[in-house]
Every structure is written in C-alpha cells, then in structure tokens.
Design a protein that fits this description.
Elements (H helix, E strand, L loop, with lengths): L1 H5 L5 H6 L3 H23 L3 H14 L4 H13 L3 H14 L4 H14 L9
Helix pairs in contact: 3-4, 4-5, 5-6, 6-7
Length: 121
C-alpha cells in the first residue's frame, strides 16, 4: 500500500501503535507528502494517476478529509461532477469547517443553475 511503501516497511497499524514521537511524526509527514505527490501529478496533467494515488490514501485512511477534497477537485477538473460532489460532501461531513464545505456549496450552485435562454440559440 501507499503507507507500507513510504513508512519504512511498517504497516499503518504499526506506525499508529508506536508511541515513539519520531515515527508518528514521520508517518504524518509522509502522509501529507503523499497528498502533495498527488497534487504534483495533477500539475503534470497526470490526473488519473493522481486520482489513483488519492484513492489509495482514502482506502488506507477513510477519515482523511483532505484526500477526499483533493480527489473531488480532480474529479471536477476532469468533468466527473457527480463524483466530485460526492467527495466534497464526504470531506465536508468529516471536516465541516474545511474548504470542501464551500466547494460543495459552489458545486451545487453550479449544478442547479438553469438559464432557459441558453437552450434557445
């Protein structure tokens, strides 16, 4: 998994169970670096790879609001509005004051916008 690869061969459970602050710090440092890796992939136009990496992070830690938010942004950017809205909603439920709450509101506003003049050229 993503965590096993980056945490010096330790599983997520072993890292969390370890009371050594340095290992816990290493775990969280690598955890956030992995999200940043996904952002770098997206900057290079590798959206599918970035989504796959974020999905791995979410699989390992389904309470990671940041990963849901970042994956939602990538889904939106690639045109998968439904998946983006779902990820924003999940992230907002995990972190109500986080940025996903505003993104969810904006996504719903965009989806509900209707202008009949656009239908009649």
């Amino acid at each position: 998994t993503v965590y096993d690869k980056h945490c010096l061969g330790l599983s997520k459970e072993e890292v969390e169970a370890n009371n050594d602050g340095s290992i816990t710090l290493l775990y969280y440092y690598i955890y956030y670096m992995t999200i940043n890796d996904a952002k770098r992939l997206a900057e290079q136009g590798l959206f599918s790879d970035a989504i796959d990496l974020l999905t791995s992070i979410i699989t390992e830690n389904p309470e990671n609001a940041d990963a849901f938010f970042e994956r939602g942004k990538l889904y939106w950017r690639t045109g998968n509005r439904s998946a983006a809205t779902t990820d924003y909603a999940h992230s907002a439920s995990l972190q109500p004051d986080g940025p996903a709450a505003r993104a969810l509101e904006m996504a719903r506003d965009i989806e509900s916008y209707f202008n009949p003049d656009l239908l009649n050229p």
